Amino acid sequence: MNQAGPARILVVDDAEFNREVLTRILEREGYQVDSAMDGAEALEKIHQTAYDTVLLDVMMPGVDGVQVIEAMHADPALKRLPVIMLSALNEQDTVLKCIQLGAQDYLPKPINQQLLKARISACLERKRIHDLEREYTLRVESMGAQLQAMNEQLRQANRMKTRFLATAAHDLKNPLGGILLMADRIREEAQIGHVREATLGQATRIHDMVQKMIQIINSLLDAAVQELGEVSLSLEMTNLGDLVHGVVRENEAYAESKNIRLVYVESFAAECWGMLDQMRISQAMDNLVNNAVKYSPFGSTVRVELGLRIVDGMDRVHIEVQDQGPGLSAEDMARAFGPFQRLSAQPTGGEYSTGLGLSIVKQMVELHGGWVWIESQQGQGATFLVEIPLISEMPLKP
């Protein structure tokens, strides 16, 4: 309904007398009234002016009422405009067809003024309700679009936050590693009498604190990768033997703090070259080696073995990380690679765990076309196995 003034009604009838009578009746009721002498003029006015209701004669020369209704029904902008058909008693079948096409009501001729007022009022009320529903729908759609835009902004802000945390955690890890090595050297010199006993205690405390910080940083890195979801790889020619050996060396101090013997064995390592993302694979291998130390008892052995396999004519690097921990149940192995999974085994030194490490391993290995699985029996330790195809050329972008 027009918001700026009274309802606007179009009277369409080929008889001038009928148009004048209907116009006077409706104007006395406070409506704004236009008229048209046939269907063609009616359609032209309907397209030019926003009417609230149309009184439409059925039988007219040229474009009749049925054709007007058909044209309005085919136009999405007009099909919901209320139309009341004006008909003689012998035109009931035609009126029924118009109603089936979308006309809201009809009035028999001669027109009863009270019935006319009632039908007009009912049509205008239906249109008012429809206009309100349409307005609310548009508001909801607009609010939905705004909420979607705000959600996207929040997602982008969250991704920026996560990338910042990941970068900060990664940047902190290297200097902490250097501090850890210096603390170990102080302890070594103390053991041969070059440093006082008090200094040895301080070095040990430094070592323990740095180790805990590194564990927290590793957890932040794991959580960042998991939260970002999609990970883009930066591939470069890499020797996996050197990479895995470096990961083992980085975990030696942690293993020594628990009196765990960390053994690295390799075969054909010089041939283990492929296009890999060094940071992602290092993170995956670090999670496996670090987990093995974390869940192994004090004084035990963790074995890391790397070798080369040829399957179906393709080179694969085969890596095994074996511990002497409590092992895993069948239920543990079934859900071990899911995110935020806490398994039955507990860290042996009270270390912190997010439950993300193995899911990150699976994600990183599978992004390189590889596989990871577990072989274990409760009470007999666990072996985590990784195989990665050694692709020697940069894959073509689609």
Short description:
The protein is an alpha/beta fold and 398 residues long. It has eleven helices and twelve strands. The strands form three sheets. It has a five-stranded parallel beta sheet, sandwiched between helices. Strands 7-9-10-12-11 form a five-stranded mixed beta sheet. Strands 6-8 form a two-stranded antiparallel ribbon.
Provide keyphrases for this structure:
alpha/beta; 398 residues; five-stranded mixed sheet; Heat Shock Protein 90; five-stranded parallel sheet
SSE inventory with pairings:
Elements: E1 8-12, H1 16-28, E2 32-36, H2 39-48, E3 53-57, H3 65-73, E4 83-87, H4 92-101, E5 105-108, H5 113-191, H6 197-228, E6 236-239, H7 240-250, H8 252-257, E7 261-266, E8 273-276, H9 278-295, E9 301-311, E10 314-322, H10 330-335, H11 357-367, E11 371-376, E12 382-389
Parallel strand pairs: 1-2, 1-3, 3-4, 4-5, 7-9
Antiparallel strand pairs: 6-8, 9-10, 10-12, 11-12
Helix pairs in contact: 2-3, 3-4, 5-6, 7-9, 9-11
CATH topology of the domain at 233-398: Heat Shock Protein 90
Structure annotation, total helices:
11
Which stretches are poorly predicted, pLDDT < 50 over at least 5 residues?
A: 394-398
What is the radius of gyration computed over CA atoms, rounded to a whole number of angstroms?
40 Å
Helical content (DSSP H or I, runs of 4+): 40-55%
In terms of quaternary structure, what is this?
Answer: single chain
Q: Give the name of the CATH superfamily of the domain at 233-398.
A: Histidine kinase-like ATPase, C-terminal domain
Main sheet strand line-up: 2-1-3-4-5
Q: Main beta sheet: strand number and arrangement?
A: 5 strands, parallel
Tell me what portion of residues adopts beta-strand conformation. 15-25%
How many beta-strand elements? 12
Shape verdict? rod-shaped
| Average pLDDT reading | 82
Order of helices and strands: EHEHEHEHEHHEHHEEHEEHHEE
Q: First CA to last CA: what distance?
A: 55 Å
The structural class is: alpha/beta
